[in-house]
Design brief:
The chain is an alpha+beta fold. The protein is built from six helices and eleven strands. The longest helix is centred in the N-terminal third of the chain and has 38 residues.
Length: 289
């Protein structure tokens, strides 16, 4: 329904029709600008609500694994998204997407990527086939931004993890006191319709930590222009390793904000942490044969 406004005011002094009409036109122009601005703000707020509805409200239950994720947009809406995608009762998918730029166009593109992953993945659908199909869809997109980085992985209940990295900052696997980057895959989605991709494979064991992030975390800059960098992320993972996944996410994002300052966020920040369940204690009385 159309919203109507009634505005009243008084005029003091001598009434000059020409000056009053000029003032009324100026007031009407200012009011129309304000109303148009509010409509635009409302549209962005609605877009933010839609985007936030695509983010998981809470991590899923999956065989004792500990998950946590957060996305902090640089503007009202952002170009980052992450998702947990249930494939079956024994396989859970993880997706982190980062569309070039930020704001509404980037948010729309990231939304399409996550929606496409949700629709295209089934237990019998191969990861590479899905990523390559999604790449062709993005290439044909009419949106201004056609460059989307994507990391997608599937976790099995026994800790097996198969992934494809399409031009995304390589997630960090913390295992046995050292780090490994998950970089197998291919180029970003969109620019090359016939791009080929490959899979990577690893096994998550008790004590391991897998950290997925967007470049808004690693490349966040301080007032002096120095990036937060991978070294600081790795140091924080070591420091927070014994804490739950949610505490690791909060600790890293808080450290980034403190490093950069509250008014220096120029890119969306996304972080997802995966921790396997702890090792089962050995049965009492067990002995080696």
């Amino acid at each position: 329904n159309e919203v109507r406004h009634i505005i009243s005011f008084t005029v003091e002094g001598v009434l000059e029709e020409e000056r009053i009409l000029h003032a009324l036109n100026a007031i009407r122009h200012v009011i129309n600008l304000k109303l148009d601005q509010q409509k635009l703000v409302n549209m962005f707020l609605e877009a933010r609500d839609i985007q936030m509805s695509l983010l998981p409200s809470e991590p899923p239950e999956f065989w004792g694994f500990d998950f946590a994720g957060r996305m902090v947009p640089a503007e009202t809406v952002g170009g980052d998204l992450f998702d947990y995608i249930p494939i079956s009762d024994r396989i859970l998918g993880f997706a982190v997407a980062d569309s070039a730029g930020h704001g509404l166009p980037a948010a729309l593109q990231a939304r399409d990527v996550i929606t496409g992953m949700r629709m295209g993945l089934e237990e019998d659908m191969k990861i590479i086939r899905t990523v390559q199909k999604l790449n062709r869809v993005i290439h044909r997109s009419n949106l201004a931004t056609k460059f989307v980085s994507l990391f997608y992985g599937e976790l099995e209940r026994n800790g097996n993890f198969v992934y494809c990295n399409a031009g995304h900052p390589p997630p960090l696997l913390y295992q046995n006191g050292s780090f490994k980057q998950l970089d197998l895959g291919g180029i970003v989605l969109g620019p090359t319709p016939d791009a080929k991709y490959e899979r990577g494979f690893l096994v998550l064991r008790p004590g391991d930590i897998l950290v997925l992030y967007s470049d808004g975390v690693s490349e966040a800059g301080s007032l002096q222009g120095k990036e937060f960098g991978l070294k600081r992320i790795e140091d924080l993972i070591r420091k927070l390793a014994s804490r739950p996944a949610a505490a690791i996410v909060d600790g890293i994002l808080q450290a980034v904000e403190e490093y950069c300052g509250p008014d220096c966020q120029h890119d969306d920040r996304t972080l997802v942490v995966i921790k396997p369940p702890p090792a089962e204690p050995a049965a009492e009385g067990a002995s080696s044969s």
